[in-house]
Amino acid sequence: MRGFRSIMVLLVLILMVCGVAYAHWTDRVRILGRAKMGYEDVRIIRYCYVKCCLCSRLESQLSQDRLVLYISWENIHPSCKLLVVILLKNTGSVPAMIEAPDININPQNMSEFFIVKYIFLGPFSRDIELPKYLESENLSSVKCIRRPPIQLDPGQRLVLAIFVHFRSCCKSCMEKNVVIEVTVNHKLWCRGGG
Amino acid sequence: MYKYRGKIVGLTLFTTSLLIVLTVLGVARAYWSGSVSVKMDIKIGTWGSRIVKWRVLRYSHPPQHLFSPEADSLEVYRSNLTGRWYMWIAVLIENNGTVPITLYEPTMRVLMTNGSSKLVTIKAYLYHLPIRLDIWNGDVSKLKLPLKGYFKNICIDPGKKALMLINIVFSSDSDIFIKDMFIVIKLNYRPGT
User: Fold this and answer.
1) Count of domains in chain A?
2) Are A41 and B99 a contacting pair at CB < 8 A?
3) Has residue A117 been placed in a domain?
4) Looking at the complex, does the CB of residue A99 fall below 8 Å from at least one CB of chain B?
5) Does A139 lie at the interface with B, CB-CB under 8 angstroms?
6) Spatial CA neighbour of B143 closest among B162, B165, B161, B124
């Protein structure tokens, strides 16, 4: 009977020592991580325009969210030219891919009387002066021209110059209203261009 | 009814989950893309010119008729022509459009009963206003034509006027006789400077 008690006590002691030893030689390491999603955003931060003649009137307004530039150009005549230069900035936290602009001219039948060209300059890491003396005829000689798609990293700037040339001379065009919309789409830049 | 209950519940669950997935995808697509745009509202102006008044300054034989059937044209009629005939006309032209125009030498159309229209030549001399001389009311018989300081083409701003002196000459070396000659002079301009 005494031998049995001794074995039980011994067993309890051994188990206790094993438990303490296990607790001493093991531990749990936890790694706590926090993932925060970035955001993709491109805005117009500055713009300027140059028109060729004094007789036409031009008013411009940038929307509050800096996503749309409204231009009202009145009393134009054949051979009138307009250069609109906008400075785009990636105000997001991830790289953006700038795509080729979509150009829409309404009404459609007036599209043959307007020449609309565009170029991208950049991207630039610093703030730059907007080029006001670009000529649509000499586009090929302008340096820093980039063809879309263009990768625009966060904080980088990109110049978009749009040329509009009204070239009709027919009297049927007089007093017509035309809407030209140039839309630059952008999306998240993915390696491989996807 | 109980037979199809399970299928209906499954179908509802599937549709709901599809809608949720599509909504999430749409939001994600909108979140990772965007656009910047330039919207231009363009209004085209009007261009035109009209003859305000005219005066015959000098001639070898007076024209039988000289009138302006349309705002931008003059018609001259002369009969029984032979040898040489000339005429100087002063025309006051106004830009009645909303944009500047550039005025060039007018175009001419000659209708003759016989002979070639090449026998008639026209020359135009353009002047900015005002000029010192009163060619509309004063004596112009001693004027030396064309006046000095003329241009081959000039730009006229909207609402402004310009003076054009037109010299029409009919010259034939042979003794050709023209019964009737009808000349239509039309203003030639282009919008813009």
Assistant:
1) 1
2) no
3) yes
4) no
5) no
6) B165
d(CA B29, CA B146) in angstroms, rounded, equals 74
Residues in chain A: 194
A73 touches chain B (CB under 8 A): yes
CATH 2.40.50 fits B49-191, yes or no: no
pLDDT digits (tens, 9 = 90+) for B88-132: 999 999 998 899 999 998 888 888 887 777 788 888 999 988 877
How big is chain B, counted in residues? 193
Partner residue opposite A77 with nearest CB, options B32, B33, B192: B192
Model ipTM over 0.90: no
Kindly list the residues of chain B whose beta carbon comes within 8 Å of any beta carbon in chain A: 31-47, 98-100, 157-158, 190-193
Distance CA(B131)–CA(B133), nearest Å, equals 6
Q: Do B41 and A72 touch (CB under 8 A)?
A: yes
Q: Residue A78 maps to which CATH number?
A: 2.60.40
A77–B47 C-beta distance less than 8 A:
yes
Q: How, if at all, do strands B65-67 and B161-171 pair? A: unpaired
Could you say which DSSP state residue A12 is in?
A: H
pLDDT tens column, B134-152: 788 878 777 787 888 889 9
Distance in Å, alpha carbon of B122 to nearest chain A alpha carbon: 25
Evaluate whether residue A35 is within a structural domain.
Answer: no
What is the sign of the dihedral through the CA atoms of A66, A69, A70 and A73? positive
Q: Which domain holds residue A88?
A: 42-188
Report how far residue A57's alpha carbon sits from residue A68's, in angstroms, rounded to the nearest whole number. Answer: 20
Flag whether A135 is in a domain. Answer: yes
Task: Domain ranges for chain B, please list them.
Answer: 1-34, 49-191
User: Chain A residue with minimal CA distance to B34?
Assistant: A186
3-state secondary structure of B182: strand
Q: Is residue A102 part of a domain?
A: yes
Q: Residue A75: which of B31, B35, B98 has the nearest Cβ? A: B98
